Fold these 2 entries.
Entry 1:
Amino acid sequence: MQLPAGFAVVRERARPLPPDDRREAILDAVLPVLRERGRDVTSRELAEAAGVAEGTIFRAFGDKDSLLDAGLQRLLDPAPFRGELRRIPHDLPFEDKLAVIIEALRVRFGDVFQIMRLFQVEGPPPRRAQAGEDWLEIVRELLEPDAARLGVPIDTVAWYLRLVAFGASIEPFNHFRPFDSAELATVIAHGVAVAPR
Amino acid sequence: MQLPAGFAVVRERARPLPPDDRREAILDAVLPVLRERGRDVTSRELAEAAGVAEGTIFRAFGDKDSLLDAGLQRLLDPAPFRGELRRIPHDLPFEDKLAVIIEALRVRFGDVFQIMRLFQVEGPPPRRAQAGEDWLEIVRELLEPDAARLGVPIDTVAWYLRLVAFGASIEPFNHFRPFDSAELATVIAHGVAVAPR
């Protein structure tokens, strides 16, 4: 190859990632060990999971607590859960649809409770201002095809689903009698049907 | 009055209460301040509420923690709540009966949560082996007159009532949309009615 005058071929040095990308790459790599170990994770476990030296992690995040905070944010991120809800087929039979929503909510609540326990978060999980509206928007779209059979607004159904799923997700509360998502879907489906018997 | 030979009238000296009665009397007197102050209560507040010297309290209970433990037991005692449920008229309309049960459960859950907070009890409240069976026994008696309209066993209705009341009692969870006991009663009443639509 004939290079233009003034150019030469040199071996390009591996350039370090920009700081934000580097942090994201480390987070991606350590997320599984964070999910398992929570606040008890050691710097060594983190470095091993990320395949870098401990010093690299500390340089990227400042300190271990900042990494733990960023990890907690990622683990509580509702986006994957919402994506899952949005993929529920809109033409599923009404009661089945409710059962799938309740089951997804229970998995999500269970997940959040476990992460909070592992990260020793006291009190309720951090709440984002938009969370309620986002939840309603998803359920409205999902239940729109069933609107004619409802005796209450879709939003009300959304809150009932959340209510029963929440209680059914708290392990110690379900000691006496655990609930099945399909049976709860039946209760809600009949409970919100148009024209009470 | 002519006394029989060998008897004489004497002024009877005020006898000290037996230790158990004394402890109960102190507990009765300090319960309101315990309910308000929980673990933060001072010995002085306790003595003032009981109208005795601090030393008398310590002699009766050994130490402040023992008094606090005994007070916690009394505050969590389910007997008054159960008495209240047993006084619900059995001939109330079905849905109204469910609403009254849900409301009573919510008051009780709210009470238990507050007491646990004030006494800094971590995790679920102490559970007695018999609690589930006691709860079922009360609801069976209350809903027996409505058995014919139910599409599920009375026990199942009992657990559904407890489930919705529990979720509706946890304040941070109800931030987006609080529930009314009557509306929850409607959902359950229609949800458990015989022959699903």
Note: Chain A touches chain B at residues 123-124, 127, 131-132, 135, 155, 159-160, 163-164, 166-168, 170, 172-173, 175-177, 179, 186-193, 196-197 (CB under 8 Å).
Entry 2:
Amino acid sequence: MKHSYVSHLFCPKCDTRYTIEDKHQLCTCGSPLLVAYDMESLAGALNPAMLRDREPSLWRYRELLPVLHPEHVVTLGEGLTPLLPMPNIGADMQIPGLLMKDEGLLPTGSFKARGAAVGISKAKELGVTELAMPTNGNAGAAWALYAARAKMKSTVIMPIDAPLITRNECAISGSNLYLVNGLISDAGRIVADLVQSYGLYDASTLKEPYRIEGKKTMGLEIAEQLGWKLPDVILYPTGGGVGLIGIYKALKELQTLGWVQGKLPRLVAVQAEGCAPIVKAWDNQEKESQFWTASKTVAFGINVPKALGDFLVLEAVYATGGCAVSISDEELLQEQQRVAELEGAFVCPEGAATFAAARKLKQTGWIGENECVIALNTGAGIKYPDTVNVQVPVLQPGEWITR
Amino acid sequence: MKHSYVSHLFCPKCDTRYTIEDKHQLCTCGSPLLVAYDMESLAGALNPAMLRDREPSLWRYRELLPVLHPEHVVTLGEGLTPLLPMPNIGADMQIPGLLMKDEGLLPTGSFKARGAAVGISKAKELGVTELAMPTNGNAGAAWALYAARAKMKSTVIMPIDAPLITRNECAISGSNLYLVNGLISDAGRIVADLVQSYGLYDASTLKEPYRIEGKKTMGLEIAEQLGWKLPDVILYPTGGGVGLIGIYKALKELQTLGWVQGKLPRLVAVQAEGCAPIVKAWDNQEKESQFWTASKTVAFGINVPKALGDFLVLEAVYATGGCAVSISDEELLQEQQRVAELEGAFVCPEGAATFAAARKLKQTGWIGENECVIALNTGAGIKYPDTVNVQVPVLQPGEWITR
């Protein structure tokens, strides 16, 4: 049996095809490229039961991943994160079927590890020795660390306001780290120049086609963890939107294989009120978003003023009958605390936004009674210490507590 | 088939037995209690093949855990963390068979989640509604969050120097958090008073018998992940030592079941030079340790001047032909950086100490050629931002990088 059934790359805008054996970034038309598989052969060769006793990592889906040879796999054990019932907060927002996919339990503490694991593995297979990328923090940390494991050099540029801990992760990996006194879009321009001037591999979001494949494993896992049944709704905190694009791609691939039946879940793009270009586009039923000026939110990972894959995000939302919702910083911080108090889960602010969105959509009736709803927590709350307000009494040794 | 084959509690010092249905803390003789199982019935009822397609969490070993009824299980999806080959740093220290068990990939970012998951589940089964505990940070964070999930009240007391992020975790869970201007031993005295005055459940290390059972799943997982073969050496960063006691207990249980054969791995207690009571006791071949005055180390989790279970730790080390080693803060911080640069793994300082210990023991010849050696990383490096020195150039938007 083949390790991977990957066949080629294609452009979702102009349909141009590219080979899988060579290094490609964007399509000549400027669009991101997507990865295609030989689904017909795969459908005959693999079935769900064969996955059952495979290793508990995203590499259990190797036939649907783009790495041709197992020796190129670069792994830190990522994947098969818990899909947890959330009965207490579910009751609080009257969604008894609320589940959380907890991506905090990944190397580097965020879902970015999925894209980095597959992206770096494929880059290694393609002979890449040095890469550059802009980041809002977590992606850069993940790519820098996986690059180190692959013995690859990296240059990472992040906004000065990105979570402090992600600086440490990049620095300790030996990455060339720079801060920029601006946004991820400013970092992106510097990377574009660096890539052009020095011929580096551009690992910017969607400028290499493989991180989507890593992210799509969230969709594969959700389906497998639900016994190949699909939920009604999946809420995803949307910055660059790669995870949502990936989940949609995964679910369609599972449909093609015949492993899932019926309607796809409604995909919900959750954004912050301070940076909501996808929500604005969805409100106007447009196919692409506009650059969001002066964007600002505590949910730093979704502070992306204009995503390269916005049209793919919107397509996934429209095609599944989903929607796009924005949440204020105040709402999401309140929800972060509720999730911790009621469920013992310390989610990241971006993840908290999906819970706030679920609450809102239940109130408006968009989420119905007894629907199965998945909130995607994209990272560990421990990466964002500043979102928690702590006032603690200090005792001296020998002092007692009375109450 | 029964959910658990737990039978009773017993005292490893005076052999007194206690029932499993009632709340017990220490033995009347002052020793911690251990959990016993009906191994004869279990050996007839369960075999390794039956585990293969169970859920990827520590609850796959439910028969060897103390929770009688599945409805009392409190879980955030903990367990089955990766056992990763470390070929690059392994080559660097001439231990080609070096592996890392990465406990950073657990809820709350540390191995304390294992003890908390099982401890809180059993406390729930016993009807506990409120607990108190001292902590060096990570255990308190884990117990506070799992207590929240179980709808249990908690009071946590930690040294003022404990990792800052663990304050946030306790605070956001709704725990009653106090800092003490001293060490964990000072916090312990305050908790002891609180427990006595108000009748709270004492969740201090080894004062409840069940966290060992959670921690022992590290040993069960290592054996299963190696295909029921045992490694030659396991290095464990030792503060309270519960993990080492647990791993030893697990391996002996697997021997009793006949699931593993041959010699047990040599267990190595790794401590910091600034707090090495177990190392000192081992050097003098003593059965118990002495209180280590003025203890100090950056590896805060192993700053435990006198562990209640020291005699059990030393017994495990002696019985397996292991040893005890101390590492300077400088050595462990250097090793932390090497592990990140060579393997892309950002380990915690305590975990880094085990790598430094492996290097040292290979140099002295204590670790032989081609031995299979496991370094246990007890938590995610992201919980300890201060251990990384970051100097980063700052760019302005529109500025370019030249090189």
Note: The mean pLDDT of chain A is 96.
